[in-house]
């Protein structure tokens, strides 16, 4: 496949090849080169997986990247973009420095996640999918469930979970993350031992569910 | 490899499955005898692990416990026990989220004892034996040193674990553990001993009904899959749980992935399908990673591929991941998603066993259904049918959320009383929380209240009162939750997740949310109640897919169970729970506390 991708690079006209909309297209080509297929059916089955990897790697999938994907799998950019806008996990715009998943599953809802959503809107000026004006934090409200229901309401900020949150707790976690700097390295990274330890400590005891 | 089974992944290979001195697996197993020899070695290894003179420390790491320091606890155990005569294992959680992360310690001459929850900085004290009060129970038959058996704890007492039998016990990343605990025994029998008809007869005798929510008998589905004449055929396992209160399938993947894989492979052989698929929700990285590991191990051993174990039968496998669209849990939408399209359902017929993935006959089963299959094949359909109620056989995984004392995933026989689940297994409400209701059936049914506690939980009993077993997801809510606001939340979920293919669902759900907002803001009239009924009726009767047809059910259920609360908003202009913008009665504090 490598040759094919290479030919895209030279053949892909104008804007896509030149800018990549902030995405390193060589890296996209490298990712795509792992997706080999024997027939057109298999190629189609792999489109979503490849988009997930690109989305995971860069935090979003730009138009230029989706054109490369379309070329690799011998389909149209239209089709690829249709997938990006249908599936909730994909973003087509860059993320902020920090990426927060706010769980809005049923457990979090009955334990008060609505207040957190409201606070993000009132104090931080962001809603689902939005990024703060200073480019620090992007929030995605998870309509499903992060599966840590005994610590609801809960967020996952970068690689770390913060549970049993109040509105003040949320603000506190965000301010500390911004002050600490650093940035998002992919939402699937397991938390570091230190970070995780800190997260648990910051929210007090989690010995016993009734705390 | 002729058929690549899975795309490459950038997911972390994680703290890898801890090489607990694997029996040499060597090359592909090419005959039944070679597999049986491998089984024997795995069993010997398993027995040796527990009989030996070593300390065995098992840490539960799954997507629930890693949020609470699971990996850090594991790393700390490894650090402190490095150089000692000890084995540190990475198992998954055992379903009891209230004791995550748990640590199980087996010392020579003692039974394994389960401790939890354990924070990373407590590991040292725990290993030194200074935290005896954190012991939850003994994994075994009898008490030890005053510590009762785990099975005596109310959370475990009522459970009968088939699907979850190995959860928290085997290492999910170790095929040796899985085979040592009995994995692929049923697969072997289906390959060599049982004819497809005999295998289907067992599944039919077991009367196992689809665990995804619809409750369709698996035996019937397999029968029509077997009879379908077009080829190739496919089997697809639906591991996409997008509902906001269900996490059962994710935990099976994280704890015992080979069980699911074996179920799918059996379905492939029995139905004559050339390829199995597992469609996993993309939001569960750990589940995906552990399942992919299982597939890779099974391929390496020759359990997948051409001429499996010399049986002359071919079976291939592909893992596909979803993109966070609830609708992809619907059968036809899932198949479109597998094919790299937008996951939007289509009209039926043709049913998917006639025309599914790539227009070929496709047998689609839920993960939990398939995970039951290996035991049914080994122990027989009659054994399974003896568990549960007359019309709902076997056990069911159930999950709960809310302010309960012992939140977690349980596997109980069908027909258990709702009140037992709430008050004993899940430990009742936490202090400061009063039980108000329990939402059933994910987002596809209405809530139940205390008066329904005597009802048996199975596929049919809850439906008569407006609830539903569905996929077994429950959410308990307390006095801080307003029925109107909750109904809006549930309806807004359906609005957000509507795939927008058919008009009744796409337009109807926003309309319902709009009316509910009128009520919440105190601008509604009593005419809005019948208006919501009528709108719901349209959505239910005219929507294209099963999910659209149940979208208004939570709202209708809320209106039925808590009608007075809806009227209080409209007539009295107050929100009794003090949640809605309309304002609370004087005696209720504002705003709603996120405890």
Describe this structure in words.
- The complex is a heterodimer of chains A (211) and B (595).
- Chain A is of the alpha+beta class and 211 residues long.
- Chain A is 49% helix and 9% strand.
- In chain A, α4 runs antiparallel to α5.
- Chain B has 4 domains: 103 residues, Glutaredoxin (3-Layer(aba) Sandwich); 203 residues, NADH-ubiquinone oxidoreductase 51kDa subunit (Rossmann fold), CATH 3.40.50.11540; 84 residues, Ubiquitin-like (UB roll) (Roll), CATH 3.10.20.600; 90 residues, de novo design (two linked rop proteins).
- Chain B is built from 21 helices and 16 strands.
- Chain B is globular.
- The termini of chain B are far apart.
- The N terminus and C terminus of chain B are likely disordered.
- The interface between A and B is large, with 75 and 87 residues.
Biggest contact:
A-B, 75 and 87 residues
Number of strands of chain B: 16
What name does CATH use for the topology of the largest domain in chain A? Glutaredoxin
Using DSSP, what is the number of strands of chain A? 4
Q: Indicate the percent of residues in helices of chain A.
A: 40-55%
What about the largest sheet of chain B?
5 strands, mixed
């Amino acid at each position: 496949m490598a040759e094919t991708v290479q030919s895209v690079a030279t053949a892909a006209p104008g804007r896509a090849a030149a800018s990549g909309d902030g995405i390193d297209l060589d890296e996209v080509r490298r990712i795509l080169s792992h997706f080999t297929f024997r027939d057109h059916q298999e190629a189609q089955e792999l489109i979503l997986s490849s988009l997930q990897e690109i989305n995971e790697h860069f935090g979003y999938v730009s138009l230029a990247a989706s054109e490369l994907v379309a070329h690799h799998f011998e389909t149209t950019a239209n089709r690829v973009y249709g997938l990006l806008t249908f599936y909730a996990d994909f973003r087509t715009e860059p993320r902020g420095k920090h990426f927060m998943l706010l769980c809005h599953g049923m457990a979090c809802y009955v334990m008060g996640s609505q207040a957190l959503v409201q606070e993000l809107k009132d104090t931080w000026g962001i809603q689902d999918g939005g990024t703060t004006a200073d480019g620090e934090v992007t929030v995605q409200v998870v309509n499903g469930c992060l599966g840590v229901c005994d610590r609801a309401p809960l967020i996952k900020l970068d690689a770390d979970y913060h549970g049993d949150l109040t509105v003040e707790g949320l603000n506190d976690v965000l301010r500390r993350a911004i002050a600490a700097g650093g940035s998002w390295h992919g939402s699937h990274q397991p938390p570091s031992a230190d970070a995780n330890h800190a997260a648990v400590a910051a929210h007090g005891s989690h010995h016993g569910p009734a705390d | 490899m002729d058929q690549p089974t899975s795309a490459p992944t950038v997911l972390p290979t994680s703290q890898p499955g801890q090489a607990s001195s694997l029996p040499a697996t060597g090359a592909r197993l090419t005959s039944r005898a070679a597999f049986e020899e491998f089984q024997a070695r795995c069993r010997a290894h398993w027995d040796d692990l527990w009989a030996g003179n070593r300390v065995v420390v098992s840490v539960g790491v799954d997507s629930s416990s890693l949020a609470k320091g699971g990996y850090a606890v594991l790393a700390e155990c490894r650090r402190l026990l490095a150089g000692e005569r000890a084995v540190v294992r990475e198992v998954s959680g055992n379903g009891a989220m209230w004791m995550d992360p748990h640590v199980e310690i087996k010392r020579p001459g003692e039974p394994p004892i389960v401790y939890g929850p354990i924070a990373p900085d407590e590991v040292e004290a725990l290993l030194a034996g200074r935290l005896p009060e954190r012991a939850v129970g003994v994994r075994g038959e009898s008490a030890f040193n005053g510590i009762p058996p785990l099975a005596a704890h109310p959370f475990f007492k009522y459970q009968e674990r088939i699907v979850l039998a190995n959860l928290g016990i085997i290492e999910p990343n170790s095929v040796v553990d899985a085979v040592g605990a009995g994995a692929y025994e049923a697969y072997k029998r289906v390959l060599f001993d049982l004819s497809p008809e005999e295998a289907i007869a067992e599944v039919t005798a077991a009367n196992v009904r689809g665990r995804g929510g619809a409750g369709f008998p698996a035996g019937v589905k397999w029968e029509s899959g077997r009879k379908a004449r077009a080829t190739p055929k496919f089997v697809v396992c639906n591991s996409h749980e997008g509902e906001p209160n269900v996490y059962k399938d994710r935990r099976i993947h994280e704890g015992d992935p080979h069980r699911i894989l074996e179920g799918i492979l059996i379905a492939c052989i029995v139905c004559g399908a050339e390829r199995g698929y597992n469609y996993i929700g993309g939001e569960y990285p750990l589940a995906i990673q552990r399942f992919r590991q299982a597939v890779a191990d099974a391929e390496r051993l020759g359990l997948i591929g051409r001429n499996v174990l010399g049986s002359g039968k071919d079976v291939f496998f592909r893992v596909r991941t979803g993109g966070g669209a609830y609708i992809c849990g619907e059968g036809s939408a899932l198949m479109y998603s597998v094919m790299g399209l937008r996951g939007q359902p289509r009209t039926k017929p043709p049913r998917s066993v006639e025309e599914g993935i790539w227009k070929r006959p496709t047998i689609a089963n839920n993960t939990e259904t398939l995970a039951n299959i290996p035991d049914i094949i080994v122990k027989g359909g009659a054994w399974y049918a003896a568990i549960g109620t007359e019309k709902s056989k076997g056990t069911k995984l159930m999950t709960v959320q809310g302010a309960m004392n012992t939140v977690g995933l349980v596997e109980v026989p069908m027909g258990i009383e709702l009140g037992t689940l709430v008050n004993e297994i899940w430990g009742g409400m936490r202090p400061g929380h009063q039980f108000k209701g329990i939402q059933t059936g994910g987002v596809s049914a209405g809530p139940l209240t205390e008066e329904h506690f005597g009802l048996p939980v199975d596929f049919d009993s809850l439906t008569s009162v407006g609830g539903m077993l569905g996929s077994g997801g429950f959410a308990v809510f307390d006095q801080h939750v307003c029925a109107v606001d909750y109904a809006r939340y549930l309806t807004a979920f359906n609005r957000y997740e509507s795939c927008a293919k058919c008009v009744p669902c796409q337009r109807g759900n926003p309309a319902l949310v709009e009316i509910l907002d009128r009520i919440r803001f105190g601008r509604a009239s009593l005419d809005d109640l019948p208006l919501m009924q009528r709108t719901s009726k349209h959505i239910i009767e005219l929507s294209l897919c099963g999910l659209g047809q149940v979208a208004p059910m939570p709202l209708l259920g809320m209106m039925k169970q808590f009608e007075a609360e809806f009227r209080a908003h409209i007539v009295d202009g107050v929100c009794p729970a003090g949640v809605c913008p309309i304002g609370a009665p004087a005696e209720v504090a504002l705003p709603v506390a996120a405890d």
